[in-house]
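TL;DR need structure tokens for one chain.
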Amino acid sequence: MAEWKEREIDRYKHDKWYQNIWFHHKGPIIAIVLAVVILGVLLYSSHMTDPTDIYILHITESPEVYKEKTISLNETITKYAEDKNGDGKITVYIENLYIGEEFDATNVFKNKEKIMTVIRSGDCMFMIADEVGAQYLHSAEACQDLSGVLTGEAAENLEFENKLWNWKDSEFKNTNETLSNIFGDSSLYFGLRIFEGTIAEYTDHAQKNFEVARNLLISITENTQNTEKAE
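>> reply
TL;DR here they are.
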């Protein structure tokens, strides 16, 4: 009988071992679990950091934008951009979307839909456009008033009710000869996604993107390249 009781006691102790550990060591256990969770979040965040420092929409009438134009535009913009995510390099992503009415209506509709979706999301705060693209952005009321952003000589090139900056006769165009030669005498407009008075003002993600886009536009219009460029 005594042996049976001892076995029952041993089994009871064995079955409840976790309760004893929790009772005596719950403080360190909680601390370890929290540390693991925090470490996991940090690792996840570091791997999920967006490698792109600025996302730019290049809106044109025609889909026939030669690769040389995109490459030259990207290389030139990179000289003026900043390292938003602090990864030691500057990465500019430019997406070209065409909206000319003489092209496939289905694709044009999808492109217009994507433009508005990307702009509303706050992912894209910087736009470049040709004449048709500029007219579309202006009619869609998608652009920020730049009269409070650009001053001096830069403000002289504002068009479309001060919503877009035209690079014509600017130092930026004259300095970057390769880009100037590729685009020729055609107008090239630069603008910011409308920000003031929108819900984007209260979103950290959109605030940072707008700040980076605004700084880029100022650097371009003042022709001030990033001298502290990451390698």
